Amino acid sequence: MAVPVDNLTKQPPASSTLRFAFGNVLAFFILLLIGVLAFSIRLFSVIKYESVIHEFDPYFNYRVTQFLTKNGIYDFWNWFDDRTWYPLGRVIGGTVYPGLTLTAGTIWKVLQSLNIPLSVETVCVFTAPVFSAFAAWAAYLLTKEVKGTGAGLTAAVLLAMVPSYISRSVAGSYDNEAVAIFALIFTFYLYVKTLNTGSLFYATLNSISYFYMVCSWGGYTFIINLIPMHVLLCIVTGRYSSRLYIAYAPLVVLGTLLAALVPVVGFNAVMTSEHFASFLVFIVIHVVALAYYIKGILSPKMFKVAATLVVSVGLVVCCAVVAVLVAVVASSPTKGWSGRSLSLLDPTYASKYIPIIASVSEHQPPTWPSYFMDLNVLAFLVPAGIIACFAPLSDASSFVILYLVMSVYFSGVMVRLMLVLAPAACIMSGIALSEAFDVFTRSIKFYISNLSESLQVDAGDSLPGNNVSPQNEVLKNEKKEDTLKERPSRKNKKKEKENIEKPSVKSKTEKRPLVLPVEASFFALFLTVLLGGFYVVHSVWAAAEAYSAPSIVLTSHSHDGLHVFDDFREAYAWLSHNTEVDDKVASWWDYGYQTTAMANRTVIVDNNTWNNTHIATVGTAMSSPEKAAWEIFNSLDVKYVLVVFGGLVGYPSDDINKFLWMVRIGGGVFPHIKEPDYLRDGQYRIDSQATPTMLNSLMYKLSYFRFVETDGGKGYDRVRRTEIGKKHFKLTHFEEVFTTHHWMVRIYKLKPQKNRIRGKTKKSKSKTSSTTHRSGTMKKNPWH
């Protein structure tokens, strides 16, 4: 009995099913290895130093996590911290993004319930490496939705090692970006997944993922502006569909409601300009959806009338909404934008109006070498990935292209946002490498198959007798039968030519794969592997040397070996053991978080920078002469002043190099502080050519007090590479109480105010002298 041909074609062969299952299992194990790689490459800091928190902001997050695990969630939301921003204080629960803290606290609770006794500090140290593995897997899912499994695996392994992401996710980097980059990529994946499937389930998950991103990082505004831009792009280019509506509308409604539940966001989710674009596009997509719905149920004539009506009503509604938004925005001095958002839209805004933002090093624009340092070979592969996304162009690939373009712009304005560019660059590079490997391997397979066929033909020709093999005869017979069955009649010959032959020729030309010469394929494959090797070596070097050193512990290499500078922890330990619990410590805001967390002392300002006037007060004190600075600090109940000085060991990030920012921020609030008074011919100098205002400032005196004793009287500053201008001076209102081993941190104590002896003022002296002069002519009192 003959089996129908249709049934045979419908049933997939067992070999293809087995190959598909084997591919899935192999991809799963590759993803596990990528996760292990992403985790392990970030452990160099723990191996070289110890399990320690890095940088400045992570110390505040660690302190908040300690409070959460000790006191619970309710006390956390209502926590008023009186050890920061004295005498103002700070409400922690309503001013912090809780995603990182709640994540690490939950992990610690789960480990404790499983009888795994890890400390809170250990959990905080390893949170970022764990979530870097999650981010690599999220990049795989996103890229797979765009270009397939091969591109997804390539993008995942690239993201696991990209130096830009490693810099913010090494062990100990307990900052918001540790979990936010995973949330960012996963939210984009769920959006693209909803675009491809039109599933309301994935749309709901997308809103929940967006909510976690809002809890984790203020960069969530990038998501709520990028997705509306992509929706508007799809509508303008005629790619609207019901899947696009399902992917966007629930995100705006449910995502905004969830975002408003986060205390630090609150009503800003509907009242600030960062969110207005999503609402405008929300109105536009409903107008377009209504127009498509009406088009499907009305005749063409009726549709024209209805479309005119719908568009008119939509324009009226949009104009009304725009008018309301303009009124709301006009009432704000910053037009409804935050300072950081305005600095992204206008790169010169921060330097003109908000110097506190411009003073942060990670808010500065990057240099060209930083792209090659943080992305390496990915910078050359990104253009090829963009070209591959256009062949063919889909909703998913257009979203990835838009994501790349916007992240490139923002990374050019602020070096910190190189972190947002890194996933986009890895996705594009993964697509480019996957497409290139497909072409190279296909060309090699084609050459090998042709070579085997030619060998078989040669073996068949050498046999005596018939030169045609039985297989070829069967194929010829099958072709003859097919041509007899499919031969068109004379009546329909013309139609068959038009409807069948032309499309078949077109499809053959379109689907014809690109095949390169085998020599070029081998050479290109070798170059690609070599390029990948360079990327791996550079990434490992960046993880081990460039980004593994914690800022609180410094090292340097010299001819006599490795030197470790542990001055920061030495200074904080001295404060913790030699000062009273209620003593107030003044320093520049960079060291506020570390002082509170490690020394457990009250600080005047810290890294939150929420009150510009308070920071300007400290900057004014540092810029003022010694007596005026003493009066300012004494009015703030300050007992100790901490300064960071790198002139002895060559540490460039000291307070002398930051001093001009103190002058600018202080001068922005107190007009008597003028930057030109601290410059000589427009140059910032600390040598003999420095201005008297500079030489008499408190920062200069506290940094260079007794500095000449270190090198025999020269006073040579290794950072500024010059001798200081004022070498021998004494302090009248401050006294040195502690200087670390390498002179990197110096702590001074305010001298107490001198006692006022009653009757010794100038006014009383003159009065007593006059009375004495008058009484000189009188008789002396015998009782005195």
TrEMBL record:
Q: Which GO terms describe its molecular function?
A: dolichyl-diphosphooligosaccharide-protein glycotransferase activity; metal ion binding
Membrane topology, as annotated, equals: Multi-pass membrane protein
Locate the region Disordered: 462-506, 754-784
For bias type Polar residues, the affected ranges are 464-474
Cofactor(s) for this protein?
Mn(2+); Mg(2+)
Domain STT3/PglB/AglB core: from-to ranges: 582-641
- Compositional bias ranges of the Basic and acidic residues kind: 475-506
Please report the stretch or stretches of sequence annotated as the Oligosaccharyl transferase STT3 N-terminal domain: 25-428
Q: Show the InterPro entries listed in the entry.
A: Oligo_trans_STT3 (IPR003674), STT3-PglB_core (IPR048999), STT3_N (IPR048307)
Query: Per the UniProt record, which residue ranges are transmembrane?
Result: 20-41, 118-142, 148-166, 178-204, 210-233, 245-270, 276-294, 306-330, 377-405, 522-544
Report the top EC class in one word. transferase
User: Where is this chain primarily localised?
Assistant: endoplasmic reticulum
Keywords, sorted A to Z: Endoplasmic reticulum, Glycoprotein, Glycosyltransferase, Magnesium, Manganese, Membrane, Metal-binding, Transferase, Transmembrane, Transmembrane helix
Q: What is its EC number?
A: 2.4.99.18
- Keyword check for Manganese, yes or no: yes
Where it sits in the cell: the answer is: Endoplasmic reticulum membrane
Family statement: Belongs to the STT3 family.
**Quaternary structure per UniProt?**
Component of the oligosaccharyltransferase (OST) complex.
The protein depicted here goes by the name dolichyl-diphosphooligosaccharide--protein glycotransferase
